């Protein structure tokens, strides 16, 4: 199986001197769902922003679908890597759901029936048909989460990067999100503190700490290692 994401020796330091990425390397195979776990401040969200080109590394390289991220390839990389923010309200800003989901494809030049088709397919894939005319701020938390995912899927990405996708969801919304993500064929990089969610959704996980990957393996094996979890300020719910 070929890698769709290839990260090599990535380094990034914030202006205040905080080291966020310290030589991180990672591959994600086509169609694979990978959980990225770790304590606050480990560099997880910084990694997500690098995959989409929002932030640019001081050293190292990123390849998406074999294409190296640079100034020339940035627009195409951003189309291929769909980043779903932790807060859906950061992603939804148009008057209606239909306009939000169609915003990206319209900016690529889609119009008419082609644009309508892209919007319909994206909303269908997340179980959100019927919401087209609704105002995003009138939706439930679970509906907003699914629509924010649809805005990314409308761009036909090769990779989904999701930052804390279960934040603010009730149990029913969380279950619906799991079912949606399990139905999607593209590679997924799922940043989460929700360890049971990671266990159910992703066969493989990495644990980040201090800008590095400190463990990489089967999710079930990593989450059964109490010493590893404790060292990285992670904890499974007692009942599990």
Task: Tell me what the structure shows.
With 240 residues, the protein is α/β, with parallel strands linked by helices. Helix content is 35%, strand content 26%. It has 9 helices and 10 strands. The chain has a 6-stranded mixed beta sheet with strand order 6-7-8-3-9-10, with helices on both faces. The chain has a 4-stranded antiparallel beta sheet with strand order 2-1-4-5, with helices on one face. Helix 6 links the parallel strand 7 and strand 8 (187-191). Helix 3 (97-107) runs parallel beside helix 5, helix 4 packs across helix 5 (141-153) and helix 5 (141-153) packs parallel to helix 6. It is globular and about 50 Å long. The model has no long low-confidence stretch (mean pLDDT 93).
Quick overview of this protein structure:
The protein has about 240 residues and is α/β, with parallel strands linked by helices. The protein has 9 helices and 10 strands.
């Amino acid at each position: 199986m070929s890698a769709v994401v290839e990260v090599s020796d990535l380094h990034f330091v914030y202006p205040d001197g905080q080291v966020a990425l310290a030589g991180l390397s990672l591959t994600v195979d086509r169609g694979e769902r990978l959980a990225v776990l770790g304590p606050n401040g480990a560099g997880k969200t910084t990694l997500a922003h690098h995959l989409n080109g929002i932030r640019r590394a001081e050293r190292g390289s990123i390849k998406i679908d074999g294409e190296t991220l640079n100034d020339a390839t940035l627009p195409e990389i951003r189309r291929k890597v769909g980043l779903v923010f932790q807060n859906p309200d950061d992603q939804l800003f148009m008057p209606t759901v239909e306009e939000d989901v169609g915003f990206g494809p319209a900016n690529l030049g889609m119009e008419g029936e082609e644009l309508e088709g892209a919007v319909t397919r994206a909303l269908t894939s997340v179980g959100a048909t019927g919401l087209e005319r609704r105002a995003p701020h009138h939706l439930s938390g679970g509906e907003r989460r699914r629509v924010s995912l649809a805005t990314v899927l409308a761009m036909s990405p090769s990779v989904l990067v999701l930052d804390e996708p279960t934040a603010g969801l009730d149990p029913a919304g969380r279950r619906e999100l799991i079912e949606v993500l399990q139905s999607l064929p593209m590679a997924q990089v799922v940043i989460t503190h929700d360890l049971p969610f990671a266990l159910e959704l992703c066969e493989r996980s990495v644990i980040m700490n201090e800008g590095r990957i400190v463990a990489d393996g089967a999710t079930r094996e990593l989450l059964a290692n109490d010493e590893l979890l404790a060292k990285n300020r992670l904890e499974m719910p007692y009942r599990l």
